[in-house]
Design goal:
about 625 residues, mainly alpha, 4 domains, about 60% helix
Length: about 625
């Protein structure tokens, strides 16, 4: 637990330091001189986006080896000399209230975050081992390639999954092997739900001041907490992009809205920054996992409004370019890595293949990769032929029987019901109850007065509400008709619940008792919906990370290249390479050695090919001799 906490702390302050450096550079420009992150949570997400964007480019030219740990520590330590300044710290400096509402909110969020961190570290430290799946199939291998070598052109021709370009795995390589090989599986991905939970709890306490944003956070907080309480050692990177998109939605909900189809109208420099962050978060999420691609289109809307902020100088092309510099950098690095790894622009999507010597063949990509992704998401354990043979009716009933009781679906149904009830109440408030005995009873009830008051309270214009509805529908549709595995999109039903329930309850938040009571009731409902998914606590934790990574038996095989032979490794009786010596692939028969730009140290020029069937045992800490010199 202690080691997990230390590594989380380093990762957290490294992100804050990167955000601090970014804002110090921005403020050298006269227009951005008054730009500061809102609070420490926003600074963390900004720093994470900077980190993931830079890693896309840095990893092309450099191996993320142990020397980068020193750079990480020095960067984090820079906060000691140039402390991070946020809008909140500047506000406290001007007013210095001893026990302000903001101080109470920050304190409550910090306590909640620390308590959740203890629970998360406890769960991770007491986990009995690392499960299989993609972490053994390719995550750890990708981390080892990134830590040991600069980007290897054509690497997808060794193992198709090694062509999956995720900035999360680059970050995992940066923070791997600090205490033991593979320790990033216990730490890197599980910091993000902690930070999100802190930000969500703080924003929920501000629901009277910012109703939509506060209620959205209050109603989706149980899902955020459940992500941490369901933690297990792995390098799955499905949660981070969903959290980044949710952070982008939170920024949208804070933005002032306009009349007609002018959806967002920034009024302060903070609004300008928030609009730009919607796109920055969405693009960064896209570089982590391509399954959130539609979010980039929706993030463009507030981002394009950002340059038209409170000062005319903001609309100058140079300022607009500066606001878009980070997402453009992230996309440039992402597409460059995609092209170099696989020869495809959107790998593993079977579109936009480039005519390059190392490009993966289209038929191989569809047969060996894409079809398996889609079929496993629809009916895990079935072959693509079995899943696709029956069409929609062949897989959907079984899928719904297995996943139809997802907490997110239950929450979304409740949210839609609330939205319909709110719409009916607003209609009654505008038109009055109808004639007859039922109408007379309704007139005597408090519903018309409440609905009338709710109707005049601040709500986003219809176009903005339609925008949010389109956002949720697009994300759900992209997920469901693409690869509907719950882990790929379990956040989207919760987002729908947070938005619909928030829009229904927001007009009543100005009522002294009704608003908080309604919000509390919905929050309790959300907790009850999600609670059955939470795990039981385990035995007392060890004091340090002890990765228990399986060590499969391996067979060696010869890889012939024009420069010489290479010793390859393949797991016996499984497709899990885990942390095996490089190069490792469970599919030695598919290797296109001539299409890979092998690192010079791997090539034994003129050497004899090793015995292809000799079995070896993988060690948990392989040395330099494992590279088949």
């Amino acid at each position: 637990m202690i080691a997990i906490g230390i590594l989380w702390t380093i990762q957290f302050f490294f992100a804050l330091a990167l955000a601090n450096i970014l804002f110090l550079c921005l403020r050298r420009n006269s227009y951005f001189r008054e730009f500061y992150p809102r609070d420490i949570f926003q600074a963390f997400w900004i720093g994470t986006c900077v980190e993931l964007s830079l890693l896309q480019i840095v990893s092309i030219f450099f191996a993320l080896s142990a020397v980068w740990r020193g750079i990480v520590l020095l960067t984090a330590a820079s906060l000691l000399f140039t402390p991070l300044v946020t809008e909140e710290t500047r506000e406290r400096g001007r007013k210095a209230p001893p026990f302000s509402a903001l101080a109470v909110q920050n304190g409550a969020a910090a306590l909640f975050c620390c308590a959740l961190a203890v629970c998360g570290a406890y769960i991770l430290a007491t986990n009995e081992g690392m499960p299989g799946g993609d972490t053994g199939l390719y995550h750890l291998s990708a981390v080892r390639w990134t830590a040991g070598y600069p980007l290897v052109t054509g690497l997808a021709n060794l193992h198709d999954r090694l062509g999956f370009n995720s900035s999360f795995l680059l970050q995992a390589a940066l923070f791997d092997n600090w205490t033991a090989p593979g320790d990033s599986a216990w730490t890197v991905g599980w910091l993000y739900p902690l930070v999100a939970a802190g930000q969500w709890s703080k924003t929920a306490l501000q629901a009277r001041k910012i109703p939509l944003a506060g209620l959205f956070c209050l109603f989706t907080l149980p899902f955020i907490v459940s992500l941490e309480l369901r933690a297990f050692p792995s390098l799955y990177y499905d949660g981070l992009p969903q959290l980044l998109v949710m952070a982008a939605i939170l920024e949208m909900l804070r933005l002032p809205t306009g009349a007609g189809w002018r959806l967002f109208v920034p009024r302060t420099r903070g609004d300008v920054l928030g609009g730009a962050l919607c796109l920055i978060y969405a693009v960064t999420a896209f570089t982590v996992k391509i399954s959130v691609a539609p979010a980039v289109l929706f993030g463009l809307v507030p981002a394009l409004a950002a340059p038209h902020g409170p000062s005319a100088i903001a609309s100058r092309p140079a300022r607009r370019a500066l606001l878009l510099a980070l997402p453009v950098t992230a996309l440039a690095g992402y597409f460059a890595r995609n092209i170099l790894l696989s020869g495809w622009l959107l790998y593993p999507l079977p579109y936009f293949r480039l005519p390059l010597p190392w490009s993966v063949e289209r038929a191989d990509l569809i047969r060996n990769t894409w079809n398996w992704i889609v079929s496993a998401a629809r009916l895990d354990g079935k072959t693509p032929e079995d899943v696709f043979a029956g069409g929609f009716s062949g897989w959907f009933p079984a899928w719904w029987k297995m996943h139809g009781n997802m907490p997110g679906f239950q929450a979304l149904a409740i949210g839609l019901g609330l939205a319909v009830a709110a719409w009916l109440a607003h209609s009654i408030g505008r038109r009055g109850p109808g004639p007859g005995q039922a109408g007379r009873r309704l007139r005597q009830s408090p519903v018309p007065a409440l609905a009338k008051q709710a109707a005049i309270d601040a709500l986003p214009p219809p176009a903005v509400r339609l925008f949010y509805a389109g956002f949720v529908a697009m994300m759900l549709g992209w997920w469901f008709f693409g690869a509907p595995s719950p882990r790929f999109g379990e956040a989207w039903p919760w987002v729908g619940f947070g938005l619909t329930a928030g829009l229904a309850a927001a007009p009543f938040m100005r009522k002294p008792f009704l608003g908080p009571a309604l919000a509390a009731a919905m929050a309790v409902t959300a907790v009850l919906v999600q609670a059955p998914r939470l795990p039981e606590f385990r035995t007392p934790p060890p004091m340090a990370i002890e990765p228990r990574i399986p060590t499969p038996s391996l067979k060696q095989f010869a890889v012939q290249t024009p420069q010489g032979s290479i010793t390859g490794y393949a797991p016996i009786g499984t497709d899990q390479c885990w942390d095996s010596p490089l190069p490792c692939t469970p599919y030695p028969g598919r290797v296109r050695a001539a299409a890979i730009d092998w690192p010079p140290g791997m090539i034994a020029a003129g050497g004899q090919a090793p015995d292809a069937e000799r079995s070896v045992t993988n060690r948990s800490q392989p040395g330099a001799g494992d590279m088949g010199q």
